[in-house]
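Shipment paperwork, digital attachment
Item: protein structure file
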Amino acid sequence: MSVPHRVRGVKILKAVSSPIRLQILNLLFDKGPLSYTELMGSLKMNPTRDAGRFAYHLKFLLKADLIEADVETKKYCLTDLGEMVIEVAERIEKRAFKPKGLLVRTSKFTLEEFDVSKIANSLIRETKMPADLAQKVAKEAEKRLLKSKPKYLTAPLVREVVNAILIEKGLEDYRHKLTRLGLPVYDVAALVDLKSKTPQWPVYIHETAGEIVLKEYTLLNVFPRDIADAHLSGSIHISGLDSWILKPSEIVHDLRFFFQKGLKLEKINASQPSFPPPKNLETALSIIFNVLLHSSKELCERQTIEYFNVFLAPFLKGLNASEVKEALRLFILNLNQHVNASISLEPKIPDFIADKPAIGAYGKIVGNYRDFCEESQNLASILLDIFIEESASKPLLNPKLIIKIRHETFMDEKAEAIIFKAHQLASERGTVHFANLLNKDEGQSVFSASGFRLGVNLDGDWEIDTLRTGNLAHVTLNLPRIAWECEGDKTKFLQILKEKLDLASRALEIKYKSVKQHVKGLLPFLLQDINGDRYFRNENCSCIINLAGLRETVEAFSQARIGESEKALEFAREIMQNILDYTHKVGRRCEKHLVTAKLPDFEASERLARLDIERFGVAKVRFLGTREKPYYSTVSKLTFHDGKINSEILKFEQEMQRLYSGGCLTVVELGEAENKPEELIALTKQLFDSYNIKFFTYDRKLTYCINCQRSWLGILHKCPSCGAIDTLKSFDQFASV
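Attachment content:
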């Protein structure tokens, strides 16, 4: 090397020998061009006291040709030589600090040698960060990691360091995209420990951990910030967060599809067998069970088998009652263990189905369903007998039974006998739901045990509008929160209500688009297509805005109890009409079936009440339940006491029922007094005829003793028979809704 070159090299080394000068070079490398004042500020130098010292270092770097000044912008920047010096300095630093063979435990469960380029590549791939910025962040992360001299590196640790750098540099949008989802080690250990102390299968631990990750992902990367914040703060509650972008909530099945075509599972997975159309009752029930089992993997909540006894009736031809009962009992008990389902029964075949072609053995047409009226009623009667027998010691809570009542139901002797058995079961165990179809305009509506309703109002065709479709999702509105926030101002209340409706509607719109986009790959069974006939009509699904705490809201705002003030009732009407107008307008604009409902949601009921108490204080918030277990109402509860129900409460529910286009579950609490079936039949007729209650169930609070294998009315703390305490199990289905 010539002497002049050596002299210049010494000058450069001397220039970077000062920590301040090296710091100036690093600042210009990391942040780009900076002014005199910006450099001094970044170095935390005093403009008065340190001006001379700073100018000296700046001139030294200028003379060494490591930085240059831009006359127009009046800023300093690195020269090519300056950038080269920084790169050389980093290589020297890396060699000095990097242990040989430093390994990283990756998220792919492998050990790999540390490579800074992988950090930059991840930033570019995951956050779409510009390459030059990604390189700078990666180098800074490498510098910090190597200086800390960890015993070993893990992928989460590397990501934490990178995220810290992004926050420091004000790059929060990139940090948001780079966030790692998952559970802390402590939470996983606690989850395993908790589940091991209760009789739970290991699969529940897997499911719970997976649900938490998907919930975090949905809130961070699916919803806009305002929707995610509204859920977290308790203004709204988004149910099924872990499945929001994956699958619909409920479905109403049409058994005829599978009775005619069989189960074509090989179209979904070539390694699976296919089943031909059923040849008898046993194979028909096996087909139904498999349909429900496969569908349960692609749904969040409940499945409803509509017209169960009608569509199954052709398979009973020629069978005696004992054969039918044995097959049905096995089916019900299997269903109880594996699938969350509702079974809808028709005491008398409705006219709009009676003349439809009946599908029987081997998928062949065997006449019309009118020809199988006797078999249909026998099946319904036998099924109720099974429920009464299986509920003798404790209630059979799944599947749920739905009895549909029409005008013609009370004009048929056998249908009346079915109604009697249903009320006998209700009087003893309170596990039957009743659907009001007395109004002929609503006669083709279908219901789920949740209270969710589908009517003929889209295409005008009951088969298209109500079968092979369902409930896409629901978002629950925290109405009491609005009452606390508006501070008695009705105009402000309605304005906030509109804002919350917008949030709920947009969340449902995201669900609708997401399921529509990913539907084929994620729902292979439901979307099976046989000869151009696709089973699940996801485009006809309802999107539900669910209401929590309507009654509490009205009473808190009007300072009067329902039934004591016309002002309270008028305000309730105004709230509901505003919601109804909104859903109608937005539903038409977005071309989706947006409806209002009041459906039981245990998580939303408790969570929203707790969050409001934390925010506004227990003295201000009007809630149901106790301080230890508060909740808001998401069902309509009526108390049957001394042979009657409060008429003012009934009138309020009658007013509200007509506005719940997506359904409403009413719960009639029977108390601890015994009721005869005839007494409940009279009450059912009154609720349907006089108050137009659309859908309800009787509720019994029961206590079951495992030792005695016997149930008693009411919630007991000691077995009346054996005196045991720890062997008692309480049944109170609607305690917190």
